Amino acid sequence: MDSLGAIRSWPANWRITTATMTTTEGIKKVPQVLTVAGSDSGAGAGIQADLKVCAARGVYCASVITAVTAQNTRGVQSVHLLPPHFVSEQLKSVLSDFEFDVVKTGMLPSPEIVEVLLQNLSDFPVRALVVDPVMVSTSGHVLAGSSILSIFKERLLPIADIITPNVKEASALLGGVRIETVEEMRSAAKLLHQMGPRFVLVKGGDLPDSSDSVDVYFDGKEFHELRSPRITTRNTHGTGCTLASCIAAELAKGSSMLSAVKVAKRFVDNALDYSKDIVIGSGKQGPFDHFFGLKKDPQSSRYSTFNPDDLFLYAVTDSRMNKKWNRSTVDAVKAAIEGGATIIQLREKEAETREFLEEAKACVDICRSSGVCLLINDRIDIALACDADGVHVGQSDMPVDLVRSLLGPDKIIGVSCKTPEQAHQAWKDGADYIGSGGVYPTNTKSNNRTIGLDGLKEVCKASKLPVVAIGGIKISNAEAVMRIDEPNLKGVAIVSALFDQECVLTQANKLHKTLKESKKGI
Ligand SMILES: Cc1ncc(COP(=O)(O)OP(=O)(O)O)c(N)n1
Ligand SMILES: Cc1ncsc1CCOP(=O)(O)O
Ligand SMILES: [Mg+2]
């Protein structure tokens, strides 16, 4: 426990299964975030961005304002700091009344304001603290001077659960070190972690001349590089605030830190992609649309938080096989994830509904705490009831456009496709990925036409969606599948080569290694 008590007691698998949790008395507890930041008159960043992203993510957000800025798309014209005692008044007012799960800090423009924040957090502990060390606006205006660095490093960073500096802020916190490559971002993340935060995310959005947008996440032991194609747009104002507040919102809903960071990264990417051609303001840097996910046109439903790279090693469970090897589905899922599975699907064709639901709820918790998506095969009702990340449906299951209308834009929908026509229809209906096969003959699924590598290649060429191959895939042929040289083939889905085995962990490790090596040559 640190000096702020509950902040360090963030329960690893504490979560709310929906945006609101109904307590025993029938009272609805809503996840709550407090943002402590500056006001942006242009409403693209600051507390305005924080409020919007929390609303978009289904979380209540209150705000304590530390400064008021006069700014627009051309830059920051003027800044007015609020007196520390008034910032303290605001903090006391909300911290004494609301049950915040997470506090997120943005612009903290003076040591005195940091001081009153620390005092109030000590008086009113919360579960998690997200610190976005805002120092310089993207238009170059200094929002927190060098005098702030020492109190940040000595007092605020040590109690933060995660800090989210961009490369300029990371460099400033580290005394001006050069950070121009991903390797230097990793070194910086490690050094910043030594200052005390439990997790560090160094954002590489403004890394010079990189084709990808790369963020480096460090948990004290492992690095995760979160890559996505760089989106060319003027509408990037507020991306840093939005990322940090989205992390706070996901934590408040009970996600693990890695899962929250992944969702937040995809939320920002999707928002930028949706907003890339919007024109608001006449300056060089415009705002983006935080509410893209609520738009009715079918295109917006494509902006799910799905990351196609998650299709890399897709574990599809089978309870008959797990029963044969005397292991529970929960243990099978844990072992698959530990071995490197990047996405899980519960495929239980014979399970009774109640049994399937209990199994699914247990697996959702495991997957969410590991930052791995969990999909349910066929059963939309089960997916909704356990708040799974999505579903996989076949051609004879519920139509995809109806599934999309039931699950909403944020859930993942995969569709089985054997032909280019089916692939095109899946895209039109709002699916996120395609499962294509059986590539090779398999005993796992009866009456299943084998399409071979040629059939898989044909579907990949026609598909606007990412594709995962399935059917008879195992260590000995996985490389041949990955080498069909189709860029939207993102991975392989496997049942028996993972679960009709004595040791799931060993097989998953071997498959993951084989797939990584096969990618090297592509
Ligand atoms: C990733 C992936 N692809 C295909 C399937 C097949 O689904 P299943 O329900 O077994 O059969 P259809 O409904 O597609 O006929 C899958 N489960 N996962
Ligand atoms: C579900 C499914 N869809 C097409 S083939 C198949 C079964 C894949 O199982 P295995 O990986 O054991 O061949
Ligand atoms: Mg099906």
Can you lay out the helices and strands and say which pair or pack?
Layout: E1 21-22, E2 28-29, E3 32-40, H1 46-56, E4 60-72, E5 75-81, H2 84-95, E6 102-105, H3 111-123, E7 128-131, H4 147-156, E8 162-163, H5 167-173, H6 182-193, E9 199-203, E10 212-218, E11 223-229, H7 239-252, H8 257-275, H9 298-301, E12 313-316, H10 319-324, H11 329-339, E13 343-346, H12 353-370, E14 373-377, H13 380-386, E15 390-393, H14 400-407, E16 412-416, H15 420-428, E17 433-437, H16 452-462, E18 467-470, H17 478-482, E19 489-494, H18 496-499, H19 504-520
Parallel strand pairs: 3-4, 3-6, 6-7, 7-8, 8-9, 12-13, 12-19, 13-14, 14-15, 15-16, 16-17, 17-18, 18-19
Antiparallel strand pairs: 1-2, 4-5, 9-10, 10-11
Helix pairs in contact: 1-7, 2-3, 3-4, 5-6, 7-8, 11-12, 11-19, 12-13, 15-16
Residues 377-378, 393-394, 397 line the site of magnesium ion.
Given as residue ranges, the uncertain stretches (5+ residues, pLDDT < 50) are 1-20, 298-303
Number of distinct beta strands: 19
Name the shape in a single word: elongated
In DSSP terms (H or I, runs of 4 or more residues), the helix count works out at: 19
What is the chains' assembly state?
A: single chain
Bound molecules: the ligand Cc1ncc(COP(=O)(O)OP(=O)(O)O)c(N)n1, 4-methyl-5-hydroxyethylthiazole phosphate, magnesium ion
* Radius of gyration of CA atoms, rounded to a whole number: 24 Å
Strand fraction equals 15-25%
Structural class: alpha/beta
Q: What is the mean pLDDT?
A: 89
